[in-house]
Design a protein that fits this description.
two-stranded antiparallel sheet, TIM Barrel, 6 helices, 10 strands, 8-stranded parallel beta barrel, alpha/beta
Length: 207
């Protein structure tokens, strides 16, 4: 099972996550308490192994701005977490993850509208897009809606429910942010435990 630790803001947390087995590190460039600057992200990315995915998270940002940040930092994937249309997903030099909030089965009907290989399903937006620590109704998702896509599951995951999420949805990857934090900061032990728990699961059915 692949794991993304999102909302990384410093080199130490990135190092702990990678050493514990993280496959992807997420950097938030949208409004968030975890927002990073271009320079912060580049400094962290420069320390990461080449085989770790470096994912930039954006919300309704200009295409040109996103591409500039890709070029300046070394991002290897982009996560679009706003109201971006399907055409926008074709505009970048790196693979795109389109994030969709799920509150009903109707939300899942949008999945096939997007041309990108990766779809991230998350809880509906709260104060921020993502990172709100709430799960979405997993039962709303069916394999037909995900046909041909690689599913990334986010939203309220933690050490206590990640195994059930994997068993229920058989994703390509799980994505965690607030679930591995203490008092709003990445917690070394929580990251290590989450990665260990997730790696024990299997389930790459949605490919």
């Amino acid at each position: 099972m692949k794991v993304k630790i999102c909302g990384i803001t410093d080199i130490h947390a990135a190092k702990v996550a990678v050493e514990a087995g993280a496959d992807a590190i997420g950097f938030v460039f949208a409004d968030s308490k975890r927002k990073v600057t271009i320079n912060q992200a580049k400094a962290i990315i420069d320390t990461l192994p080449t085989d770790v995915r470096k994912v930039g998270v954006f919300v309704n940002e200009d295409i040109e701005t996103i591409q500039d940040i890709i070029d300046m930092t070394g991002l290897t994937m982009v996560q679009l977490h706003g109201d971006e249309d399907p055409e926008t997903c074709k505009k970048f030099s790196v693979p795109v993850i389109k994030a969709l909030g799920v509150s009903s089965k109707k939300d899942c009907e949008k999945i096939q509208e997007y041309p990108c290989e990766y779809i991230l399903l998350d809880s509906p937006k709260g104060k921020y897009r993502g990172g709100n620590g709430e799960t979405f109704p997993w039962e709303m998702v069916d394999s037909e809606a995900l046909k041909g896509k690689k599913l990334i599951v986010a939203g309220g995951l933690n050490i206590n429910n990640v195994s059930l999420a994997i068993q229920s949805l058989h994703p390509f990857m799980v994505d965690v942010s607030s679930g591995v934090e203490t008092n709003g900061k990445k917690d070394d032990e929580k990251m290590i435990q989450f990665l260990s728990k997730a790696k024990m699961g299997t389930g790459e059915f949605c490919q």
